[in-house]
Recover the amino acids of this structure.
């Protein structure tokens, strides 16, 4: 079974992935890690430089923070970035899933922030959404990134609305409180055999 794990920015999706990895016998594909690997490929880097200029490169590698700043404030540039990178990233995820299946892994989790936006939700058996109230999401993002409330809201609004994602998901993990309650929520909602 392939589960798609998603959420909004700063809803705690990575924390949920770590808890699952620690406690359950599953394979997790971290799409951010896959993305970093793909963006180091010469052909992809060259396309990004041609499209966004040389200032996105720092010490021979993509400056992800700079890239994020460029695309978060410009829908057209974000679409351009996605056009350059998405196909390569999604193909690599497909390849890893097949590899895991071949060696008998029964449960594979695809940890993907933009699961719906990338159209990958239709490729997984179930979608697991990590959800929190918008006020909590804003505070976590401000603290994590050291940014203003206005910029946090901009980053949140650049993604698909969390309420929309909620309607499209099969399992909702609420992450409004503390780690202990989050672990209880995972145990309650995810029916996987423990390690």
């Amino acid at each position: 079974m392939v589960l798609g794990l998603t959420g909004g920015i700063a809803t705690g999706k990575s924390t949920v992935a770590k808890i699952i990895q620690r406690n359950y016998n599953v394979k997790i594909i971290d799409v951010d890690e896959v993305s970093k690997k793909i963006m180091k490929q010469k052909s992809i880097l060259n396309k990004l430089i041609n499209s966004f200029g040389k200032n996105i490169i720092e010490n021979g590698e993509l400056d992800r923070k700079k890239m994020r700043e460029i695309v978060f404030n410009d829908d057209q540039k974000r679409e351009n970035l996605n056009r350059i990178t998405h196909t390569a990233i999604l193909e690599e995820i497909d390849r890893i899933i097949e590899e895991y299946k071949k060696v008998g892994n029964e449960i594979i989790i695809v940890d993907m922030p933009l699961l719906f936006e990338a159209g990958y939700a239709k490729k997984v058996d179930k979608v697991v959404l990590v959800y929190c109230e918008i006020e909590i999401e804003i505070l976590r993002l401000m603290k994590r990134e050291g940014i203003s409330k206005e910029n946090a809201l901009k980053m949140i609004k650049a993604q698909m609305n969390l309420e929309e994602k909620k309607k499209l998901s099969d399992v909702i993990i609420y992450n409004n409180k503390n780690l202990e309650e989050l672990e209880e929520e995972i145990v309650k909602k995810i029916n996987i055999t423990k390690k």
About this structure: The two ends are 17 Å apart (CA to CA). The chain has a mean pLDDT of 92. The chain is about 55% helix and 15% strand. The first helix runs from residue 13 to 23.
